Amino acid sequence: MQARGLRGSAVPSKAKLTYFQDQSLELQLQYKAVDQWTQCFKVTPDDGKGPIKMPNTAYLGFSAHTGELSDNFDIVSVDTKNLYSPVAGSGGRGAQGGPPNKKGGAAGSFKSGSQKSSGGWGWFLFKTVVFFLVVGGAYVGYTAYRTKQKREYRGF
After folding, report:
1. Which contacts qualify for 8-11: CB closer than 8 Å, 24 or more apart?
2. Beta strands of 44-137 (E only): which ranges?
3. CA dist., res. 109 & res. 106, Å (int)
4. Per residue in 2-57, pLDDT tens?
5. How confident is the model at residue 88 (pLDDT cuts 50, 70, 90)?
6. Residue 116: C-alpha distances to residues 27, 44, 89, 125, 147 (Å)
């Protein structure tokens, strides 16, 4: 596949590289119109080249070769996403190890009820005020106790 029109495109050019563990490797480009993806290639084990193996630790790098011409390329952003919901003991796949559903998790995956969200500044301020009230109350109680002990000692 040749991507004629990639240079000087009216929309920002995007590339989407999708790898399903041992199942497929696919590259798609968006350069003609927004949300119109053109498939560059797709490799599967059924192609007769054997299973697709990638290293366990992956590194992402970018390079460009323009031949005899010189050109400038700006990489504005890079987004990486895991197609499966991480679940302990499943090797990085979803609960069922199936393909992702529309919400980004694996089909049949479950949400843990132990996920906590941060409370924000309001909750922090509330806890700080309560802390100082407890410390202030302890100080007032200790001062009253000390005053009572002094009165008893003096015989009042």
Report:
1. none
2. none
3. 5
4. 777 777 788 888 889 888 877 888 999 998 899 999 998 898 888 777 778 788 78
5. low
6. 36, 39, 21, 19, 46
Rounded distance between C-alpha atoms, residue 30 and residue 3, angstroms: 10
Q: Are strands 14-20 and 38-43 parallel, antiparallel or unpaired?
A: unpaired
Tokens of 141: 């109680």
CA 70 to CA 68: how far, in whole Å? 7
Q: CA-CA distance, 128 to 110, in Å (whole number)?
A: 36
Alpha carbon 111 to its chain's center? 16
Measured CA distances, 42 to 25, 29, 39, 93, 96 (Å): 6, 12, 8, 21, 24
Sequence-ordered strand ranges (E) for the chain:
14-20, 24-30, 38-43
What is the model's pLDDT at position 118? 61
116 versus 33: which is more confidently predicted?
Answer: 33
> For position 134, what pLDDT does the model report?
96
